[in-house]
Amino acid sequence: MLRQKAFMKKTKSGKVLKVVKEHYLRDDIWCSVETCKVCEHTEPVLSAVPSINKAFRLPHYIIPDTNIFINQIDVMEHPLITNVIVLQTVLEEVKHLSLPIYQRVRDMIANKEKRFYVFSNEHHRGTFIEKLKDESPNDRNDRAIRVATKWYANHIKDLNPRVSVVMMTDDAGNRDKATADGLQAISVKWYIEALDNTEILDMMSSAKDLDDGQKTIYDEHLSSAHISNGIKSGKYLQGKLGISSHNYLEGSIYTKINGEEGTILIVGRSNLNRAVDGDIIAVELLPKSEWRTTPTGVVVDEEEEQAEEESLKAEQEAAAATAAKEDTIMAEPEAEKATAAVEAHKLDTPQPCGKVVGIIRRNWRQYCGFIDRKSVHTPAGSSAPVNVLFYAMESKIPKIKIRTRQAHSLLGKRIIVAIDSWPRTSRYPIGHFIRALGEAGDKSTETEVLLLEHDVPFHEFSKQVLSFLPVEGENWVVQPEHFAGREDFRSLNVCSIDPPGCTDIDDALHVVPLANGNYQVGVHIADVTHFVKPGNVMDQEAASRGTTVYLVDKRIDMLPSLLGTNLCSLRSNVERLAFSCIWELNKDAEIVNVRFTKSVIASKASLTYEEAQNRIDDASMQDDVTSGIRILNMLAKKLKQRRLDMGALTLASPEVRFSLERDTQDPVDVEMKELKETNALVEEFMLLANISVARKIYEKFPDSAMLRCHPQPPSANFEKLEKAVARFGIEIDHSTSKTLSDSLDSAVLPEEPYFNKLLRIMTTRCMMQALYFCSGAQIEQEFRHYGLATDIYTHFTSPIRRYSDVMVHRQLHAAIDSSLSYGDELTDKEKMNDLCGNLNHRNRMAQQAARSSVELFTHLFFKNKTEEEEGYVIRILKNAFIVLVPKYGIEGIVYASAKVSKADSGESATAQPQPILVYNPETDCLQSTETLAEGETPKTQVQLFQKVMVQISIDDDLKGGGEGGMRQKLKMELLKPWIEGISVHGIANKDDPEAHAVTSTKKRDEAPVPAQDKKRAGKRTKA
Amino acid sequence: MSRAELLSPEGLRIDGRRPAELRKITSTTCVLSQADGSAYLEHGNTKVLAAVYGPREARHRALVLHDRAILNVELNVAPFSTGERRRRSKNDKRLLEMASFVKQTFEPVVIATLYPRSQIDIYLQVIQHDGGTLQACINATTMALIDAGIAMTDYVCACTAGWVEREAAIDLNYMEESSDTSEVTIAMLPKSSKITLTQMESRLHVDKLEEVFRLAGEGCKQMYEVMDKTIRDRAEDLARKMAV
């Protein structure tokens, strides 16, 4: 049967089109109930005896409407909810409203245990309905759901054992109509309450019913039509909100202001108007008179917190008194005193400020965090539902109000929470509990938290993924048929050099002196693409993971470990498949020619950096492998020298390595990562291979080669650094990487040996992030890799741990073997671009996760310790400065307005304390407040690069108050130079009230990660 | 992910068909009294009118072949055939190309040696466009040629098939065609299963080609059933009328 669907559609360019589509109705869409004899389904999804609920007499299947999925997806994901019929109408609406939720619904449908069945009612002859005249699309869809429910009810009414269907909707009107039709309908709340399960009750998203009598705190958001018109006319600006990591009440968007790119600040709760970090928002510029003229500060808002706490307490007491009255919505106190802070120093040019007028797209996700102990006031053991406040681990996220019946058992635990809504009447967003992860402070819980927070997929590989591994498993060996199309390099003296304990060896080297005095050098990379075929489930999984994530105590693999650490790993004395890059190099390490081939190798030795170094140094070793390493070392030095002459940068990062105790994996010692000559050896040849491969694949795939670039940093990044080093008479010329490298080399202070390293660390933070890109998406001039000073670059050498290399392998294979057939995954510019986007995101997240892991172990290391160490000031904030301690590679904030518990947050300026040090924007330093005569230096000042003594300990003082270690953080206190009011007296005076004053001001911030601190030397080949 | 889901996990395409199902086909012959043969064909919402004139004296003396007829194909797409009104010039290269495809398809099938020194004109008019224009043109031409009584060795049935997300599907509509699907059109002589035209413009993985071809071939056979029935019904109808 054929129906026509005709509708009007507006195209992107604004034209109105009439679209006519065919719509076929079918007789072969089955009900999928196990006991149904009429339908001809082969694999029924819905079980014969479905869910049982006290609310209904018969076992039943659930038919939810769209809003149930949109609002209560966590409840639907609960294992108790099974045998659900998902109507096509509902599924399409969900997809239209929210892709992430659609994906989650799809995942549930794919999960056999959930027994979710998609009934294509729109194409079913018996359930398709035409839109009536004057019926809104929503009403039509509601009716479609009722019609489908009715069809099911009739269809299954004679089955044995008896079953029924239940329509689940929170729309009372819809329920009434359903009941009038003789159908069973129920709201989520009633259904869940009848289930009698605390956990699932907590997971229920709070109802959005607003009490009109409530005082509104926020301005209303504009409608989406209003916003899009405003953006078109230039009245509003659109951008992605980034909240400052130091101040959760200060955000900014980066957008075009009157044709010029710039940043708009959004300061304070009411201007932010319920926007959360990552949301796409519409902003209206404030008049120039309200623009901000002071630099960033660190927020400490205690006053308001107390007020909030009081209200919660009052509410909970009231709730306890009248336990039946459940739906009390807390009365919000007016704690906000949004007066602009009066500042001592002004910036030359005021920064544009704006306020949020509407939200274009929410970027809410699930947040890890903990319940504020102070917000729980009910007696222990009470299981009445209470509203409590939740702190997300990420300091950029506002507190979230959740309603839970298990407040006491969740205290001291890390939990996951989702935001449901943020009504105008509520100071904080309202959310619901999803699940508990474990005890706070526990290493495995904290590790899980950091993986979740950085969006690292760490679940085990599914059976489906593992099914694509070779069937021989560990017994897989190179067979004669593998030699087809491969060169036999088994006789060569190939060896690998890696860090100690490395099990995923993806590269190996060899060298052979040639008769003409040149050298044949080969880099052999694990042939991962022999095992990972494009498009299969394993490949998709690897593409979505993007990279292996290295944490201090564990590794989250990109590929199943059978491949990563065994079949692909180029271990010694076993035959392995490899992808080889063979050069002929002359005595000066210049490339005479290069070729690429697939091969079979048998590594003769897998060495650590140290072993390789010892072999080079030990004159008594004269075997083939050792002399090979010596030649490679000689060539590598020449390569490196040439690279440095070209202007490659030598950057530094304060990386440390933990020695872990064997059993408990607790850190026992910290040491700086040491670099040996052999590190550089391997790195040089890997760089050479990557560059050679990049040229080759770009030649073959000019539009779709996967390459890596490193853009030149803008001058603005260097401004502060330049100012600071000018004091030492040093100039930094960053116009090209060559000049920068030269000025770094000459920047040596004889009295301060660490200065050069420190400068390099800080230069690293001025750099841009290196990115993957698809060659067709950028002009050739932008291919440059600034840090490595090469015109083209890619990643080829670590396919076991990076997906980009897997793609490059495939492209290189296609480039050398013209008879190879390949799909559009190698040629489609769009797909390649999307993939690059994902890989860049995963990489960034992996780096941050690795850094957080180091931070976690630093905290464990310093637990119950107090150390005095030398540090350097590396960043100045308005009311604080950041100190780097090179010995441990850690950073911490030292506050400049110490004794104050209510420092300014840009909001509460009523009791403005006298800061001890104030910020001087001209010199970018903090100085004492006495008035100065012209040319006189202030008595005390703190400036960049200054050497200080700090005392390091772990601040167990938690947000919630009391013990439990809710959010550990590193505490740094100044010892030297002595500044009255800020400094402390060392360990002996730990109980000094001053010291406590310092700690109490540190509320919100984690050890800061400066925005530019992104690039770190990787495992070996950085960039 | 913003791209439309062309094939749902439940196995239905956007218009509710399954991958191996054709759209609804409607066809009639003898729709124009002026022409020697004519046919009107609908593949779902793709609608084509074909008119055949000839064999008749060739327009241009220079083109005449002494031993057989020449074929002349002209294709026109109505400005109102798509949602957006667009007038195409007569020299639109896409249209000329498609006309030449039709011509090449029929040259080996029409027994042109029976009509020496003459010309057969085929005029095609696409009235509504919803994907699969070429297949519709070829099928309509076959029916119009039969209607005109021009000798052919066999029917020519055309069908498209493509790789939609993860499966081969036939008779792609406009939505499926326009979202970057690799599409193959083949024209087949159903009795001998010989292929007289294969046309593909995008990349298709060689592993998938066989499956797509197989399905397209099946589509051609189904198409043959429908066309043959129309022709036979028409012939019976005529025979009945003559008998009266």
TrEMBL record, chain A:
Residues 987-1023 are annotated as: Disordered. It is found in: Cytoplasm; Nucleus, Nucleolus. It comes from the Eukaryota. Residues 486-818 form the RNB domain. Residues 60-176 form the PIN domain. One of its GO terms (cellular component) is nucleolus. Its cofactor is Mg(2+). Pfam families: OB_Dis3 (PF17849), PIN_4 (PF13638), RNB (PF00773), Rrp44_CSD1 (PF17216), Rrp44_S1 (PF17215). Residues 1002-1015 have a biased composition (Basic and acidic residues). GO terms for biological process: CUT catabolic process; nuclear mRNA surveillance of mRNA 3'-end processing; rRNA catabolic process; rRNA processing. This is Ribosomal RNA-processing protein 44. It comes from Linnemannia gamsii. The gene is DIS3.
Automatic annotation (TrEMBL), chain B:
It comes from the Eukaryota. Residues 21-150, 154-218 form the Exoribonuclease phosphorolytic domain. Pfam families: RNase_PH, RNase_PH_C. Gene3D superfamilies: GHMP Kinase, N-terminal domain. Belongs to the RNase PH family. This is Exosome complex component RRP41.
